[in-house]
């Protein structure tokens, strides 16, 4: 009986590693940082075991760990009690995120700063845009988002990441940045952001749960793959330099399809709920946490992601750079 013995190349660790088709590197990871507008804040979050909320005056403690881990960059989210209907704190030059951007760039030019652009952390109602009655005013919202993006670019952000899912925001932000001389500042939008229950831990940490209703009228139905590809195509046509897809684990098919269809870098966001499930199962002894982390991140990259936003970034980097699994 003749058959192919594919197992020949799996017999030893050295053979297996030689023929790995997918490899992870710490520089491909982007670590989420929650920037609090208070003082002397370095608070571990119970919703996200191992993740801290930090104020600018204690930011260096987090940066030292990030630098040591040799990861590619950080993505910043503001945490503030200074909220109003318009989310006006988001555009302030002395805002927590703006201060953090300047601090990080002073600390090291090697840490890429991705600035998340949205209003949900700054509005009193918790929605991602400006309200007109109980609905989002899309066009007014993109005007405000453009001002936030400009503020972050002026502070020194390397990359602008609108996460609001408003129509036309990429074109509006590109026009705003270009008109102020930031023609080389990339825009990497959340192009396929599904309305997911897996964002719950993030919303608790960022204090950004909507005060009424939900976000299903602007975030995407997770049932729709073709619509996700249309969203990505629209953002590319407006000038997106790369795209973000989230949640990662429930969007592997979308990541793969986008990789096949579009000649553009793709970042997958391994979101807070995905992280929390692994940490919870690890605490209960139900799985080998380190092995599962690397397996998950490898699967995301295998699907087509060029980089991964993940709360696992620091521990995954330590695993990859410190020892073999």
UniProtKB/TrEMBL annotation:
<comment type="function">
    <text>Catalyzes an early step in the biosynthesis of tetrapyrroles. Binds two molecules of 5-aminolevulinate per subunit, each at a distinct site, and catalyzes their condensation to form porphobilinogen.</text>
</comment>
<comment type="similarity">
    <text>Belongs to the ALAD family.</text>
</comment>
<feature type="binding site">
    <location>
        <position position="118"/>
    </location>
    <ligand>
        <name>Zn(2+)</name>
    </ligand>
</feature>
<feature type="active site" description="Schiff-base intermediate with substrate">
    <location>
        <position position="246"/>
    </location>
</feature>
<feature type="binding site">
    <location>
        <position position="311"/>
    </location>
    <ligand>
        <name>5-aminolevulinate 2</name>
    </ligand>
</feature>
<comment type="pathway">
    <text>Porphyrin-containing compound metabolism; protoporphyrin-IX biosynthesis; coproporphyrinogen-III from 5-aminolevulinate: step 1/4.</text>
</comment>
<dbReference type="Pfam" id="PF00490">
    <property type="entry name" value="ALAD"/>
</dbReference>
<feature type="binding site">
    <location>
        <position position="120"/>
    </location>
    <ligand>
        <name>Zn(2+)</name>
    </ligand>
</feature>
<feature type="binding site">
    <location>
        <position position="231"/>
    </location>
    <ligand>
        <name>Mg(2+)</name>
    </ligand>
</feature>
<feature type="active site" description="Schiff-base intermediate with substrate">
    <location>
        <position position="193"/>
    </location>
</feature>
<keyword id="KW-0862">Zinc</keyword>
<protein>
    <recommendedName>
        <fullName>Delta-aminolevulinic acid dehydratase</fullName>
        <ecNumber>4.2.1.24</ecNumber>
    </recommendedName>
</protein>
<feature type="binding site">
    <location>
        <position position="203"/>
    </location>
    <ligand>
        <name>5-aminolevulinate 1</name>
    </ligand>
</feature>
<feature type="binding site">
    <location>
        <position position="128"/>
    </location>
    <ligand>
        <name>Zn(2+)</name>
    </ligand>
</feature>
<feature type="binding site">
    <location>
        <position position="215"/>
    </location>
    <ligand>
        <name>5-aminolevulinate 1</name>
    </ligand>
</feature>
<dbReference type="GO" id="GO:0008270">
    <property type="term" value="F:zinc ion binding"/>
</dbReference>
<keyword id="KW-0460">Magnesium</keyword>
<dbReference type="InterPro" id="IPR001731">
    <property type="entry name" value="ALAD"/>
</dbReference>
<keyword id="KW-0627">Porphyrin biosynthesis</keyword>
<keyword id="KW-0479">Metal-binding</keyword>
<comment type="subunit">
    <text>Homooctamer.</text>
</comment>
<feature type="binding site">
    <location>
        <position position="272"/>
    </location>
    <ligand>
        <name>5-aminolevulinate 2</name>
    </ligand>
</feature>
<dbReference type="InterPro" id="IPR013785">
    <property type="entry name" value="Aldolase_TIM"/>
</dbReference>
<keyword id="KW-0456">Lyase</keyword>
<dbReference type="GO" id="GO:0006782">
    <property type="term" value="P:protoporphyrinogen IX biosynthetic process"/>
</dbReference>
<keyword id="KW-0350">Heme biosynthesis</keyword>
<dbReference type="GO" id="GO:0004655">
    <property type="term" value="F:porphobilinogen synthase activity"/>
</dbReference>
<dbReference type="GO" id="GO:0005829">
    <property type="term" value="C:cytosol"/>
</dbReference>
């Amino acid at each position: 009986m003749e058959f192919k013995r594919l197992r020949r190349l799996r017999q030893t660790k050295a053979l297996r590693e030689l023929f790995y088709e997918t490899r992870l590197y710490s520089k491909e990871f982007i670590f989420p940082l929650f920037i609090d507008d208070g003082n002397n804040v370095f608070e571990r979050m119970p919703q996200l075991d191992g993740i801290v909320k930090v104020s600018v005056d204690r930011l260096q403690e987090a940066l030292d760990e990030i630098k040591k881990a040799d990861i590619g960059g950080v993505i910043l989210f503001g945490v503030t009690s200074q909220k109003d209907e318009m989310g006006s704190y988001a555009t302030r030059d002395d805002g927590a995120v703006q201060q953090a951007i300047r601090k990080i760039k002073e600390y090291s030019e090697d840490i890429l700063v991705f600035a998340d652009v949205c209003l949900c952390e700054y509005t009193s109602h918790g929605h991602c845009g400006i309200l007109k009655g109980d609905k989002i005013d899309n066009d007014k919202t993109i005007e405000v988002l453009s001002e936030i993006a400009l503020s972050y670019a002026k502070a020194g952000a390397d990359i602008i990441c609108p996460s609001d899912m408003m129509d036309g925001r990429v074109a509006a932000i590109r026009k705003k940045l270009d008109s102020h001389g930031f023609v080389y500042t990339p825009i990497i939008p959340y192009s396929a952001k599904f309305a997911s229950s897996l964002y719950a831990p993030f919303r608790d940490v960022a204090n950004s749960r909507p005060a009424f209703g939900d976000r299903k009228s602007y975030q995407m139905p997770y049932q729709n793959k073709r619509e996700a590809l249309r969203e990505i195509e629209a953002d590319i046509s407006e000038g997106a330099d790369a795209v973000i897809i989230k949640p990662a684990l429930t969007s592997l098919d979308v990541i793969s399809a986008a990789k096949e269809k579009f000649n553009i870098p793709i970042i997958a966001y391994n979101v807070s709920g995905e992280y929390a499930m692994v940490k919870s199962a690890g605490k209960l002894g139900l799985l080998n946490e380190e092995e599962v982390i690397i397996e998950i991140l490898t699967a995301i990259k295998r699907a087509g992601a060029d980089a991964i936003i993940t709360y696992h970034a620091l521990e995954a980097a330590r695993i990859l750079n410190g020892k073999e699994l």
